[in-house]
Write a structure and sequence with these properties.
single chain, 239 residues, mainly alpha, 86% helix
Length: 239
């Protein structure tokens, strides 16, 4: 369980790095939009091939359909609550998607870390290429959220603590994934949590990251998205 937790923490640690970059370096909104588009491509590759395809190969149609629906509805409901809170607080910052991206990172990172921890059950070890793809996609996700959160008036120290908490939760989820799925038998639950993560992250991409990437990144967003998709895909394809 300790090894699984450390691997989960390692994959999520780049969230803190991304947030630090967004808070300390003078990054323009256009660059943020292009970085966000790169993250969209990387996350699209991860949810399609590392999560949904693998979940279908293991569990078939029912767990994938249930997980996708549950993940999408969970993010949608959480994002609606965040929007209501933002309107109630009369936040005037346009495109304030920072909290929604943090929510998406949690809803994606926790199931993803559970699955990561469960891979150790087979004794084959953690896939380093998959871990690298997750780490790469985390950087732009946290960077853009940190920039948005700062624009909304949050202090840098608070923002960094938020991402440290997300990374620690992800590490804990990986440890619990190893322990709990080992006790219950992972074959039924692994595809469900994989599909849940895919549904949550896909809804987050369409609702928050893609519109903001186009608004800030201009006409090169499509190229950056393809670059992110290709980078994550080829990393996870390394045998």
């Amino acid at each position: 369980m300790l090894e699984a937790g450390l691997w989960g923490l390692a994959g999520a640690s780049t969230l803190v790095i991304g947030a630090w970059i967004g808070l300390t370096l003078p990054v323009s909104r256009r660059v943020v939009g292009l970085v966000m588009a790169f993250g969209v491509g990387a996350l699209t590759s991860a949810l399609a091939f590392d999560l949904t395809e693998e979940a279908f190969a293991i569990g078939g149609t029912l767990p994938v359909a249930a997980g996708l629906g549950a993940g999408a509805l969970t993010f949608y409901a959480g994002n609606q609550l965040l929007n209501q809170r933002r309107r109630g607080a009369q936040v005037s910052t346009p495109n304030g998607n920072g909290p929604a991206i943090v929510l998406g990172a949690l809803l994606d990172g926790i199931p993803e870390s559970i699955v990561l921890g469960s891979t150790l059950l087979a004794g084959a070890g953690v896939s380093v290429p998959f871990l690298a793809a997750v780490a790469i996609s985390n950087v732009p996700e946290a960077l853009t959220a940190a920039v948005d959160l700062r624009r909304e008036g949050h202090r840098p120290g608070w923002i960094v603590r938020v991402w440290v908490a997300v990374a620690l939760i992800s590490g804990l989820a990986a440890a619990l994934g190893y322990g709990l799925l080992g006790e219950m038998g992972g074959s039924m639950w692994v595809p469900l949590v994989q599909a849940f993560a895919a549904g949550a992250i896909l809804t987050m991409l369409v609702d928050t990251m893609i519109p903001e990437a186009f608004a800030d990144g201009g006409d090169r967003v499509g190229l950056a998205t393809v670059l992110g998709f290709a980078a994550a895909f080829f990393l996870t394809s390394i045998s």
